[in-house]
Amino acid sequence: MGNAPAKEARSPSGSFSKDNVVSSKSFVGLSKRKKERDREKRRQKEQHMLDLIVRYQENVDGGYLAPYGNYKDGLNYKTDVVRELIIERKLAPFYTPLEDFDESWTDGELLSRLKRLNLHAPTTELLLDEDEDPDDHKIHQSASSMRRKEHKAFKRHLSEMSIKFQRDAESRFSRDRSVSESGIKTYPNIPSDDLLLTLYRNAIECPICFLYYPPNLNLSRCCVQPICTECFVQLKRLDPHPPHDEGVAPNASTEPEKLADELISEPVNCPFCAMSDFGVTYSPPNLWTGIGGRPPRDFNLIPQVIHEDPNTPQGGSRSSDCQRKASLSYAMTKSHSASGTPPKKSTCLSEYRTNQGQKSFEDSGSMKSKNSDDGFHIKNAEGSDPARRRRGSLPAKAPGVITVDLIHPDWEQKLLNAKSKLARRSAAATALHASSLIYDRDDSHHTYTSRFESSYRRSDSSNGNDHNNHTSIEERMIEEALKLSLLDEEERKLKERLKR
Amino acid sequence: MSMILNRSGLSGSPPIGQLSAWVARVRYPVPGITAVPHEDNLRYFNVTIDGPSGSPYEGGKFKLELFLPDDYPMLAPKVRFLTRIYHPNIDRLGRICLDVLKANWSPALQVRTILLSIQALLSSPNPDDPLANEVAEEWKSNEQNAIKTAKEWTERFAQ
């Protein structure tokens, strides 16, 4: 109660001093490394938080690079990967959802609704559990208790920052939008009415969250069902678990070491048709606004401007290179100004451009069909778009398929951690068991022998006589200790390998 | 209804845009099934399911509770019988053994579908995948007697 960690606002560098005191005696080098690792982890978490802020300057085809906030949890997908995929038009951007939609709305009605939308769902202060730490009433607090508090304080700090940044982004958006609306001044990243109407005129419902989005949603690779990006990033593998069907192998060993090996982590099934290894494809609408295109303010439906030359294979990238570059760098530099971090995606630009050439070539087929007379009506996913209907089921490895594992690559690490944790726990339990036997020895000699024998029956049956037992227990404990350290080492190596 | 769709009614609970959409869907009427959200917690529903005709549960009105966890719809809703019921796949605590509530849950399934599945489970008990072992044994060894007990329980508890 008295220890309100939120107010202390410790600096990251000082945060693990307690830990260091504990470990500094013999592992100075180690603790330094650990400190560095912790700092790196925090940096990554901060970046992750910043990546989840919706900023209106960061837009692609009328959508954004961060989710609207329908789900308050489960946002631990790889934000850098998803942002890049959206910029490359390989995944639908995060569009702002409409709670309801009626085809009979006039353009004016639709527009007035669209113009009232926020960038992000209303945020409230994070309700972190204010549970007391078990060590709160002790005179000496353990290092792990300090650590837990640090962690909590950091989490609260992150949540406060994210709320603040989102609020800033929001007020900036509404200010710029109303200034644009009044006609005093225009902002290139405030979307034109034409763009808004083009996007939302034929809005469709995401079958998972029941909210309405522009019809260019992602499509499941297997059964071609629409799914919005916000729902898609929520999907991830379940935590590592023992195989479900106990019935299939009832004689499966109960030995903990083997249990660890049996832990599995299965790819996500398609929510619609249950096909394993879920993935989506995305065909971008022919809009090219925002990052990698022209400013969304300048989007209009005058056919000559839009279809300069529908027959060129470069169908999608009609705005001049120079203009695109300018708007791209504009968006890039602006995007991180709030956070104070430098724009880190310098690679993105070149990559994006090579990609765009490719993509527009790939898409030229479907583009052409859309480029016919009436131009900019994005086709409904279930509708008559021949390109979409013709597309059958695609394998998970097909080019253009974005799988769940691609944006949640940490499952391998998680499985590994769970396995080594379980193995370590069982080894520790065995060691504990063995040591308790030593104390037992004097008074309950015989029972201990039998217990010992039964638990180590595998290799110890030859060790019948009492004299040898004590030494063999010690040997075994040493063995266990060796095993533990080997496990740790193995884990460390694998971690390094995964990090590459 | 307007209270439900009004997001300000969620004061105190975290902002979840779709909650209203989901709640509206849960309330979508199905014959023989009702689901009413609690006033103070929109994630929590009082559910009733009518015993399907032709089953030993016919004529009974079974109360259940349904809860949409924070991870919904990525995780299945939690459903439990409040009314006692004699059924091989429903235990004494009202827990239900149904694949779509566990391994076969999909975010594209709606609560409506789940409630319909539970109603279907009442029509076709599956003693080969039991949760209440004794009931399942009885069902397999003496089905007539089991059905009789189920009818008695329905009259006793589910009126």
TrEMBL record, chain A:
Biased segments, Polar residues type: 12-21, 311-320, 330-340, 347-359
InterPro entries linked: Sip5/DA2 (IPR039301)
GO cellular component: cytoplasm
Region (Disordered): 1-21, 306-396, 450-474
TM spans (from-to): none
Bias (Basic and acidic residues): 370-387
Family according to the record: Belongs to the SIP5 family.
Protein name: Protein SIP5
TrEMBL record, chain B:
UniProt signal peptide: none
Domain UBC core: 14-159
Domain of life: Eukaryota
PROSITE patterns (UniProt xref): UBC_1, UBC_2
Alphabetized UniProt keyword annotations: ATP-binding, Nucleotide-binding, Transferase, Ubl conjugation pathway
Catalytic residues of the enzyme: C97
A Pfam entry, by short name: UQ_con
GO molecular function: ATP binding; transferase activity
UniProt cross-references to SUPFAM superfamilies, sorted A to Z: UBC-like (SSF54495)
Record bears the keyword Zinc: no
Coiled coil: none
InterPro entries (alphabetical): UBC, UBQ-conjugating_AS, UBQ-conjugating_enzyme/RWD
UniProt record similarity statement: Belongs to the ubiquitin-conjugating enzyme family.
Protein's name according to its UniProt entry: UBC core domain-containing protein
Organism: Ogataea haglerorum
Taxonomic path: Eukaryota, Fungi, Dikarya, Ascomycota, Saccharomycotina
